[in-house]
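User: Here's a chain of 159 residues. Predict its fold as C-alpha cells.
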Amino acid sequence: MLGHLGFSYIGLIYLLMLWIPNSIWSKNKPIDYNPSQENKILLVFERVGQICCTCSILFFSDFNIAPFSAWSWWLLASLFLMILYELSWIRYFMNEHTEENFYRSFYGIPVPGASLPVMAFLLLGIYGKVIWLIASAIIIGIGHIGIHIQHVKTIKHVQ
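Assistant: Prediction complete.
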C-alpha cells in the first residue's frame, strides 16, 4: 500500500494530459476570470496537493501497466476520466472563453476541469495501491474542487 519507488510512465502521460491543456488555457483564460477572491486555505490545499500528486504519480512504478487483473478496471476507469477531462478542454477551447463556459458541467459532471482529474488520480492511486497518491488526490481535491465551486457560486451570484 506504500508503493514501490521507480519511474511511472503512466504518471508522466497523466501529467502531460494535465499540463498541455493547462498551458494552452494560460494563454486563453476566460475573459472574465478573476482569481483574486480565491480562498487562501483552499489555495494552500491545491498547491500542496499539486506537489504531492506530481511526486507520487511520477516516482512510484505501481501505476505502470501490469498483466490484466481485476485491479486493471481501476486503471481503465481512471483513464476514461482523463479522456473525459481532455474532451471537456476541447469543448472549452472550441467555445467562448468565459468563466461560465469554463466551469459548466460536462455530461452532468460538475466542475469537470477540477473533478475529473482529481477522481482520475484517486482511481489511479487505488489501481496502484499507493496510499500517497490517494491521500494527495484527496488533498488537491479539497483545494482544487473547492476553488472551482467557489468560482461557480460567484458566477451564479453575479447573474
